[in-house]
Amino acid sequence: MQVKVFLSSTRGDMDQDCREWVLNVVRDNASAVEMDHWVMDSDDDEQSVVDLCYQMICVQSTHFLGLFGYRRGWVPSVLEPTRRSITEAEYDWANETGKTLAVFVPNATTKFADELRRRAGSQSEREANEQKQFLDRVRRESLGCLEFKDPGHLVSRAIDTVRSWQGGGLRAMVAADRRNARGPNPSEYMFLGCSRQFFAFEQSLELIASPHVAKQTAWLIHGRVGYGHQDLMERIWHRLSQVTRTIRRVRVPLGVAWREDHCAAVCSLIGRELAVDDCNNIETVAFHLSKVLDSVDVLLEVQMVQRFAGSLDGFVQNMLQPLIRQLHGRHKRRLLTLIGLEHKESSGEPWKTLLQEPPVPGDEETLDPGKLIELPILTPLTTSEIATWLRRFKSEEDAYEIALALTEETEGRRTFVRERLADPSLWTIQSI
Known about the structure:
It is a single chain. The chain is an alpha/beta fold. It has helices spanning 18-29, 46-60, 86-96, 111-119, 125-141, 151-166, 169-181, 195-207, 229-243, 263-273, 282-293, 312-327, 383-390, 396-410, 414-421; strands at 4-9, 31-33, 63-67, 100-106, 145-148, 216-223, 247-253, 297-303, 335-342, 355-356, 372-374. Strands 7-8-9-6-11-10 form a six-stranded parallel sheet, sandwiched between helices. Strands 2-1-3-4-5 form a five-stranded parallel sheet, sandwiched between helices. This is DUF4062 domain-containing protein.
């Protein structure tokens, strides 16, 4: 497999020397994918730039190399609500799509780090603080984060890293064959598409961590039947269980056979998850749930909420809001609620009044715990999304060809795509 490296770097501090030297390392040892060489029309807006950047990372590159200093850089207007710079977004996209990555950051105690701070000195205090938070996050969560002392040390580490990605020999050939032959485990389908919704959840989750925000927050996952509600819930749970071990999952499956239209039946389901008998009213649920919330966070998943008397608004007004009122001030940890709604596209639904926009920095305290944060509506899978996911198992060329055929055959309907991906013949190594 050809190694195609997306080079992401902060500008204004790394431009004078570091970026160009590392870029030469990449060009000498692999194929470079970089913003500088993308052809843009003069009338392209910021959204187009961001979309193209996302495409180049997720589809065109196989590896990600970050070069992050102290300058915050450009924050596109489309990323302004979350105050993410384009560099930070690039890093998040690489992580989200499972790229092999390495990130180089300066050793903060060196003279060269002082020089980089000087180069970034023209930015505002707010920008400097935001960049510091980003660097702290990278150091904390990225196993591929490497420090460098000076440009020479950086080049040396970059050469070692890129050459290690190339591999080679019999071991690489065997690994490639295994990659082409291995089919997905059931749990891997959660990473197929839904990236916009997942990013929106993560961004709002970071903001509600403020102690000034209510300890109950709910999100709405919605879209047409078969567009990935359950997979997105699994993905969110997977992420939460990675970042904290003090969280408990409580599932409320209002499935296709659900015919109840009153809260007592829902309370009974929650009680069963909490291992509590005779849990048939909201007051009892709140009492036992508050005891759990004294020690751990709780993720409450409500699936197929349209089965509750046929409406989301009925569930929110008769179940969720009374439960939140009962819990108010009675627990130390957070209650996070995911509500899955399958529906046809419509702009006149009464439940629209129960929604609120995702929070933005500075406005977290305005969140209403009795309303739902609306995640972007689930949509059909695109060729790009399917190809990005398939590259976990197939070569880039095969992944794109299969994705194109699947998109045309299924129109991106997730349920049908998954059925086709379950075909064993898709994962058989073809003879040469």
